[in-house]
């Protein structure tokens, strides 16, 4: 009987892996991937809380400034965000909060921010804000938090108990800025203390752990930094005020805006002159006029030297309406458009790249996590 021979394949014996001989070998963890967008050498960072509709004061003091700066500081990369984490220092209705977040984002675009020049995103969608916020809490001292003027003011107004975040939110505010190595931070007069704390925390961390954060500089608008209440011009224009005549909302009916301007508090003197101490009401209206037209207060004083308050208010009412009308038109075009979501997604993706890179460095400096 014939026999058949089966061919036997030769198999090579591979040498045992060397890793078994060195169980203590370190694993190298690579930092987060860098986006294809090239970095600019300087950055600008700012944000607004979505705790209600935005006012004319927000527009003049912040939004309008952002629009100018995106062109004037074209060598900077701009990070503008909706500060929703800051909103929860006080109780919020979740549906109303989400509505306000989207509304603020739409108003940013409607006021002239260009998504091709600015990274627009929602703060809570970039988790590194909260992570660095806690690290800033661990860098700050309780005394520094308690000395913050806005904490004292808000503490005096609250009756239902004070949340810890109301005390510590300046640490999160510092994190918002330092996370992106911001060189420039547009601020109003009431935020100087927050910027100073941010600078102190950056310097303290750098001294303790080595060079990590850029120490930011403030940018102070020449006019319109702090628009006052129309009914009490010694106070800031605030949408949380009890008197609806005290503020102008960017989404107010145009006829209502006219009436609010015409009923604004002035004085019995009748002279249109900028004197904050003696004539706070007309000084506030001059500030609004100057900010919206880029005409100096001195030139406005000359223009209306022979006019009365009624004439001045009539003119100002039309100037305010003319400024707000196109904003409202653009707002209602974009508020329910999916394009708004695309803009926010794109901004968040870019922010995450920069933020994750910074947190990788911070964790390494502090010794957090595994060996890297």
From TrEMBL:
List of residues binding L-tryptophan: 176
Main location: cytoplasm
Record GO terms (molecular function): ATP binding; tryptophan-tRNA ligase activity
Subcellular location: Cytoplasm
Positions annotated to bind ATP: 49-51, 57-58, 188-190, 227
Region (Disordered): 1-24
EC number: 6.1.1.2
Keywords: Aminoacyl-tRNA synthetase, ATP-binding, Cytoplasm, Ligase, Nucleotide-binding, Protein biosynthesis
Gene Ontology BP annotations: tryptophanyl-tRNA aminoacylation
PROSITE patterns, alphabetized: AA_TRNA_LIGASE_I (PS00178)
Transmembrane domains' residue ranges: none
GO cellular component, one term: cytosol
UniProt motif 'HIGH' region: location: 50-58
Swiss-Prot/TrEMBL catalytic activity: tRNA(Trp) + L-tryptophan + ATP = L-tryptophyl-tRNA(Trp) + AMP + diphosphate + H(+)
Coiled coil residues, start to end: none
Top-level lineage group: Bacteria
CDD domains in the cross-refs: TrpRS_core
Similarity-based family: Belongs to the class-I aminoacyl-tRNA synthetase family.
Function (record text): Catalyzes the attachment of tryptophan to tRNA(Trp).
Assembly and interaction partners: Homodimer.
Listed name of the protein: Tryptophan--tRNA ligase
């Amino acid at each position: 009987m014939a026999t058949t021979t089966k061919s036997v394949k030769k198999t090579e014996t591979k040498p045992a892996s060397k890793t078994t001989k060195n169980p203590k070998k370190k694993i190298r963890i690579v930092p987060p991937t860098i986006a294809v967008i090239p970095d600019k050498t300087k950055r600008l960072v700012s944000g607004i809380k979505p705790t209600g509709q935005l006012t004319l004061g927000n527009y003049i003091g912040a939004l309008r400034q952002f629009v100018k700066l995106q062109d004037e500081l074209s060598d900077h990369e701009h990070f503008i965000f909706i500060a929703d984490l800051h909103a929860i220092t006080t109780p919020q209705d979740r549906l109303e909060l989400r509505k306000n977040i989207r509304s603020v984002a739409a108003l940013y675009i409607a006021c002239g921010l260009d998504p091709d020049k600015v990274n627009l995103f929602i703060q809570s969608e970039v988790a590194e804000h909260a992570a660095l916020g806690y690290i800033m809490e661990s860098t700050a001292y309780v005394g520094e938090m308690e000395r913050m003027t806005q904490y004292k003011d808000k503490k005096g107004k609250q009756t239902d108990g004070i949340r810890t975040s109301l005390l510590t939110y300046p640490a999160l505010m510092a994190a918002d800025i330092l996370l992106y190595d911001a060189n420039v931070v547009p601020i109003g007069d009431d935020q100087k203390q927050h910027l100073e704390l941010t600078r102190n925390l950056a310097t303290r961390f750098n001294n303790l752990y080595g060079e990590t954060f850029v120490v930011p500089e403030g940018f102070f608008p020449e006019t319109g930094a702090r628009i006052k209440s129309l009914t009490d011009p010694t106070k800031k224009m605030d949408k949380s005020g009890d008197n609806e005549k005290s503020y102008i909302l960017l989404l107010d009916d145009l006829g209502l805006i006219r009436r609010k301007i015409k009923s604004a508090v002035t004085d019995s003197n009748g002279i249109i002159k900028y004197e904050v101490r003696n004539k706070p009401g007309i000084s506030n209206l001059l500030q609004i006029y100057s900010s919206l037209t880029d005409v100096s207060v001195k030139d406005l004083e000359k223009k209306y030297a022979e006019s009365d308050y009624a004439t001045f208010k009539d003119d100002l009412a039309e100037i305010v309406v003319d400024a707000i009308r196109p904003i409202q038109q653009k707002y209602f075009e974009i508020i329910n458009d999916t394009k708004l979501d695309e803009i926010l997604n794109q901004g968040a993706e870019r922010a995450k790249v920069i933020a994750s890179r910074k947190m990788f460095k911070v964790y390494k400096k502090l010794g957090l996590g595994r060996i890297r």
